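Chain A, query sequence.
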Amino acid sequence: MKEQFETLDEAEIVKRAKDGDEKAFEMIIKKYQNRVANLIFKIIGDSSVVEDLTQDVFLRVIESLRDYKFGSALYTWIYRITVNICIDEIRKRQRSR
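Chain A, predicted structure.
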């Protein structure tokens, strides 16, 4: 089964993840986790929240995957989710000052 997943293109992996295939979603996380974490660190600049915010991003991806449209690259969509979560974190920090 592992070999089959490695030969799938991204669109097929996303389709399977949308259908509830946990292995497909794990592949998405594995592929983009480091890029998301690096982006969060660049935006927030605080390594103590990177792991939590990365988890928040992928939770939002899980919750919103059914709304993903194939018109843009998957990472573009995940990037936007990441930026939005970082903006929320910045606002939260500003309110707590």
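The radius of gyration is 15 Å. The domain at 2-95 is CATH 1.10.1740.10 (Rna Polymerase Sigma Factor; Chain: A).
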